[in-house]
Amino acid sequence: MKGARLEFGSPISDAVSRIRFAPRTNNLLISSWDSCLRLYDVEGSALRLEAPSQAALLNCCFQGESVAFSAGSDCAIRRHDMHSGTQEIMGHHDDIATCVEHSDESSILITTGLDKMIIFWDPRLKRALVSKSLQVEVESISLAGFELMLAMGSSAYLYDLRNLDGLLQSKESKVDARIRCISSASSCSGFAVGSVDGRVAVEVSASSTSKNTAYTFRCHPRAKNGNHHLVSVNDIVFNPCVLGAFVTGDNEGYVAAWDFQNRRRLFELPRFPNGVASMSYNKNGDLLAIAASYSYQEADELVEPPQIFVYNMDEDWFGSASTGLTEKRPYISR
């Protein structure tokens, strides 16, 4: 398994908030607190676009290959043309905008903010369709088909995009602490959440006829003075091509891959120079991008300059993951 750091002519000058691979290519979308949205061609090892904005960008997503959206600290939701580099404000939250996702199945844009609102937008008409007031702030959202998952406090909720007037369905998260991230499984039915105290809760069904597998584990069980050292799980991403395989990244810079069916670790990467702020698989699941960046969660965070790494998940990894490592020890990349 080989990894390489992406090179930028002008380094990213503030925290990376989100990275996303494009739906069909190996172009990587990067939002950051330095107010820039970047598009990096991983195959060509070149920065294709750097689009400055007027506010810190706290999240981003693609709509196809040529359009992207960002959520800003100025409450604005921006639409970016990735060919021309132009941008326009589509609308606003009443407080800082924090999350943004686009549903290809329903052609709806979903955003949340510190105003405790979730807004469903029509990107073509550039207007809000439905706004819903929530009791608490949304920490994280994730999409799989028509199913939108939301993390609020220590609870997870499911929302069906085919019925915008419907109610949120509560899902048991099996964690007591605040949820930091939520991720929908794209290759099967289910989701995983990561909490600020280092726990991961998984609920996945391998097929439509099988029962859900649900359990909780401590993701990176490191101890100090005999006590658990609580480290936030900042991101979880499922591999789109390997059933039930997912990776976790924590605030101390550790990334590990897991096999949910056999409940074991597949491998752990060497520690990164910063906490893991965001991760993304490409469409084939053979490239894993990792943003190592401080995230303003703690006063004593590592503050090395933000860096982005891309790992090639080779055939040995795919073979090990698909067979569940029944005859192999967990693989540690060195």
Describe this structure in words.
The longest helix is centred in the C-terminal third of the chain and has 9 residues, at 315-323. The protein is an all-beta fold. The strands form eight sheets. A five-stranded mixed beta sheet has the order 24-25-26-27-31, with helices on one face. The protein has a four-stranded antiparallel beta sheet with strand order 1-30-29-28, with no helix packed on it. Strands 2-3-4-5 form a four-stranded antiparallel beta sheet, with no helix packed on it. The protein contains one helix and 31 strands. The protein has two domains: 15-138, Methylamine Dehydrogenase, Chain H; 181-334, YVTN repeat-like/Quinoprotein amine dehydrogenase (Methylamine Dehydrogenase, Chain H, 7 Propeller). InterPro entries: WD40/YVTN_repeat-like_dom_sf, WD40_repeat_dom_sf, WD40_rpt. Keywords: Repeat, WD repeat. WD repeats lie at residues 90-131. Pfam families: WD40 (PF00400).
Mean pLDDT: 89
Question: Over the alpha carbons, how many angstroms does the gyration radius reach?
Answer: 19 Å
Kindly state the number of beta strands.
31
Helix residue percentage = under 10%
The dominant shape is: globular
How big a fraction of the residues is strand? over 45%
- Any low-confidence stretches, pLDDT <50, length ≥5? 324-334
CATH superfamily of the largest domain, by name, is YVTN repeat-like/Quinoprotein amine dehydrogenase
Question: What is the CATH topology of the largest domain?
Answer: Methylamine Dehydrogenase, Chain H
Q: CA-to-CA gap between the ends?
A: 9 Å
What is the level 1 CATH name of the largest domain?
A: Mainly Beta
Structural domain tally: 2
Q: Note the total helix count.
A: 1
* Level-2 CATH architecture of the largest domain: 7 Propeller
Structural class: mainly beta
| Strand arrangement in the largest pleated sheet | 24-25-26-27-31
Keywords: Repeat, WD repeat
InterPro entries: WD40/YVTN_repeat-like_dom_sf, WD40_repeat_dom_sf, WD40_rpt
Pfam family, one: WD40
